[in-house]
Each structure stands twice: as structure tokens, then as C-alpha cells.
Amino acid sequence: LFKSNSDLKSLFQGFKDLKTDDELRSNEALENHATLVMTTLDDAITHIDNFDYVSEVLRKTGASHHRFEGFNSENFWQIKDPFLDAVKVTLEDRYTDNMEAIYKIAITFILKTMVEGMEDHRNSNANTIKAADT
């Protein structure tokens, strides 16, 4: 993710100053964040048949990113290709055109829902601030 999107790394306080791949691989903050991301993705995919639950989890996750200075909703999309590459490597010979199509649909839904959650949160806050100013 950070090899192809080095600008994204600068948004993370815990590992933005790390220079080498070895430093990144051994960084506890990055490991914790990666685990959190993968847990969220796994939860969404595991419960994909429960739209209301998955939508709520993803929208809340997206909304929670408002607190990171410089992070915008479009940043979520930067994980799409690295995620799909990881799926391909993990599934090895079980990776088929059908599996690729399924995972593309799943990750697009996941990221779109997180974007909506973040944007809705920002719009809600903007409306609250406007109402307070009037």
C-alpha cells in the first residue's frame, strides 16, 4: 500500500517517518493498524449476507476517520488494488476469474460504504456548525 501510495504514509503518526521496508515490517503501530483493517474487512466479508450490520460497521468505520488530519474519503480507495493483490497471492491456484469478480464487487461495496460514512459524518458536522452559527 505504501509503496504505491507513499503520500498516504505521511498521514500516519505512528509510522510516517519510517524509511525502509524493514522498518515498516517491524513497526508495531503499523502492524496494529493492519490488523484492525484486516479485521474490519474480514468482518464485512464474513457477514456480507447481513446488509444492515455490515453497512453500519463500515459507515461507522468510515466516519471514524474524520479525526485524522489530512485524511479524505478518497484515501480509502487506495487500499483496493493492494487488497485484491493480497487475495490473489493468498488464494494461489484457487484464484479464478469468478473469485476475482466476487472480491472486486466486495471491496468496492466495502470502500464505497466507508466513503459514504465519512462523507455523511462530515456533512452532519458541517450542518451542526451552520445551525450553531445562525
Walk me through the structure.
- This protein has 134 residues and is mostly helical.
- It has a single domain (13-133), classed as Globin-like.
- It is built from 6 helices and no strands.
- The protein has helices spanning 6-9, 21-25, 28-46, 51-64, 80-91, 97-133.
- Helix 5 runs antiparallel to helix 6.
- The N and C termini lie far apart (43 Å).
- The mean pLDDT is 89.
- This is Globin.
- GO terms for molecular function: metal ion binding; oxygen carrier activity.
- Belongs to the globin family.
- InterPro entries: Globin, Globin-like_OT, Globin-like_sf, Globin/Proto.
How many helices? 6
Poorly predicted regions: none
The whole-number mean of residue pLDDT values reads 89
Structural class category: mainly alpha
Provide the fold topology.
Blueprint: H1 6-9, H2 21-25, H3 28-46, H4 51-64, H5 80-91, H6 97-133
Helix pairs in contact: 3-4, 4-6, 5-6
What's the short story on this structure?
The chain has about 130 residues and is an all-alpha fold. About 70% of the residues lie in helices and about 0% in strands. It has six helices and no strands.
What are the defining features of this structure?
134 residues, mainly alpha, Globin-like, 6 helices, Globin, iron, transport, metal-binding, Globin/Proto
